[in-house]
């Protein structure tokens, strides 16, 4: 009888550890990928999310912009490292997520200073996505606000927006449209054009 009791106790302990490990596996998720567009060039992106016991999750991200046309020495620009944190709220039974966040830019892309700056700009941003059996919709908006304004610094802000609405053709294929807009705002070195639209794109996506 004693051996049976010990065996049952050991099985209970093993089951508890297994449950705890399963919970730990669900707590954190990480992903990385490389994207390419006319804004950031070929850019490695790192994502992370942490589940909580609340009605939201915590997210982190990092993007390294490698567009060489934005990082030329002649124009005084530089590459840009973007890091941030946010919260994910799951709505409509989990089909719709809203991810507001706050990021920081590091470099001298938005403020033509003599050296690379840590915390060059602050980036309020929001990502949202909706997915069900028919629709697949994603959108993102961000404003890169320079924090290096000064008499000896020529700064600018950056506005970025994109949206990709589509229809699910299969589990792995979505057909739809894509819209993206990029603009420089509050240009301190231009007395005539304070805001300049860099580009606006509208087309299809797969």
Q: What descriptive keywords fit this protein?
A:
single chain; 206 residues; mainly beta; ten-stranded antiparallel β-sheet
Shape, per Cα inertia axes: globular
The description of the largest β-sheet is: 10 strands, antiparallel
Helix segment tally: 1
Order of helices and strands: HEEEEEEEEEE
Give, in spatial order, the strands making up the sheet with the most strands.
Answer: 1-2-3-4-5-6-7-8-9-10
Structural class: mainly beta
Uncertain runs: 1-13
Proportion of strand residues: over 45%
Radius of gyration: 23 Å
Residue share in helix: 10-25%
On the 0 to 100 scale, the average pLDDT is: 78
Report how far apart the termini are. 65 Å
Number of strands: 10
Task: Walk me through what this model shows.
It is a single chain. Strands 1-2-3-4-5-6-7-8-9-10 form a 10-stranded antiparallel β-sheet. With 206 residues, the protein is mainly beta. Mean pLDDT is 78; it is low at 1-13. The chain has one helix at residues 2-27; strands at 28-37, 41-50, 56-65, 80-91, 96-107, 117-131, 135-146, 157-168, 174-185, 196-205. A hairpin with a 4-residue loop joins strand 4 (80-91) and strand 5.
């Amino acid at each position: 009888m004693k051996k049976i009791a010990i065996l049952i106790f050991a099985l209970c302990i093993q089951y508890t550890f297994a449950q705890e490990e399963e919970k730990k596996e669900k707590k954190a998720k990480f992903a990385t990928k490389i994207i390419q567009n006319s804004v950031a060039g070929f850019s490695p992106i790192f994502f992370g999310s942490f589940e909580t016991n609340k009605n939201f999750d915590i997210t982190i991200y990092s993007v390294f912009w490698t567009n060489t046309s934005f990082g030329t020495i002649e124009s005084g620009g530089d590459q840009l490292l973007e890091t941030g944190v946010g919260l994910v709220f799951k709505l409509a039974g989990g089909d719709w997520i809203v991810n507001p966040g706050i990021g920081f830019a590091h470099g001298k892309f938005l403020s033509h200073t003599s050296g690379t700056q840590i915390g060059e700009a602050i980036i309020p941003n929001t990502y949202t996505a909706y997915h069900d059996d028919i629709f697949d919709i994603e959108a993102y908006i961000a404003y890169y606000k320079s924090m290096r304004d000064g008499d000896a610094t020529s700064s600018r802000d950056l506005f970025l927006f994109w949206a990709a609405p589509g229809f699910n053709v299969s589990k792995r294929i979505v057909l739809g449209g894509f819209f993206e807009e990029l603009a420089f705002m509050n240009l301190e070195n231009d007395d005539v054009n304070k805001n300049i639209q860099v580009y606006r794109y509208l087309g299809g996506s797969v």
